[in-house]
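Re: weekly structure request thread

Next one in the queue (448 aa):
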Amino acid sequence: MKKNVQKTNRREFVKVTSAAALGAAAVPYFPWTQSAFANRSANDRPRIGCIGVGSMGTGDAREHARFGDIVAVCDVDSRHAEAAKNDENIGKGTADAYGDYRKVLDRADVDVVSIVTPDHWHVKIALEALAAGKHVFCQKPLSLTVEENQLIRRACDRYKNLVFFIGTQQRSQRDQFLRAINMVHKGLLGPIKKVTVGINGSPTGGPFPVETPPEHLDWNAWLGPAPLVDYRERRCHYEFRWWYEYSGGKFTDWGAHHVDIAQWALNENSLGTGPIEFDGTDSKHPVEYVDGYPVVDDCYNTSHDFAIQCKFASGVEMVIDSRSDNGVLFEGEKGRIFVNRSKVTGRPIEENWDEGQFGDEDLVNLYKGKPFEGHKANFYRCIAEGGFPVSDVYSHLQVMNTCHLAAIAARLGRKIKWDPRAEKIIGDDQAASFLARDPREGFEYLKT
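Done, posted below.
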């Protein structure tokens, strides 16, 4: 009981102090990253549990630690957990280290959880985190299937008082992606006719040998909801991305970033929107496929060469391909621009067509009424103040529908038609069978 009271007090304190700072500050928002906030006493800062602390998880944990105190770390690889516990920028030697994420969720003193596991674990852990009353940061891509999108949407509808934030950090790149999106939203390129989303192809590799799992890794727990298979080193940790059993290859790896930018700019990322047709006939995989499944289990199996033609009801065409430069190309009736993480180019940029039309007010609009600032700063601001984060779960789910459907079309090598309002594949039962996967016994989803 005492822990629950302390948790409530801490949350209320953060809300009150941030509101006071907003009223008193000369600048239009409280500078969350200042040491004045970072050095508040432990009783006043949100307490954070980091689930998944490998390479990406370590980087995220260090950023979370700027805004709160990490009291728990968890990883099925004990080396990762111990390293994070003893990292001076994460656990500082005092955080508790676990191998079972449920021990983090069971803690009444944890306010926020960061989920940076392999993709096939994201939704299961997130559902349980919401039910446990935690604010959630989850790395992209959030989901493995369209059904998982629907499960997490229902849970977020139920737990509206909790902030759910996605690690799509491109949404906080002012001079590249936000400028490009603002230009499209303002109509400066004219009506958009075509968008090309370059996401590169997955690597190829294998066959990889069966090995004995290392002692520091709980392979059964790593697999979790996925089918039980022999351990191969290249199935695990970072390499999981190139196996459809755990991820979606580049469709979800880079697609979660660049398709997101494309659909945000097109205003095709709200419930019931998105493409209505996906043509996967121009796609190849590094191994043989039969009925949408690889015939071998010892090689990377996600597509390495593809150009998926997507059509919106508006008539706009979007091509998701592995052959174009990594980034997003918008082609309108008046002009075209290309944007990626390092640049935004094109005559409209060179001639400053957006002069006087891309200022603080525009950034606040893109940030859903919040001031433009660092990515995770927006997350913690929303926890303290309320409101909707810039990387919200609902628009991300619409993007993930697109990414998963592109992968299904590629796996089957044909066109599929999609009803974005009903969230159903039309007239293709085989393709529809890929919209969901049965989790392994003992790793079922929490019912919400």
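Residues 2-169 form a domain with the Rossmann fold fold (CATH 3.40.50.720). Residues 82 and 102 are 17 Å apart (CA to CA).
Next request, please.
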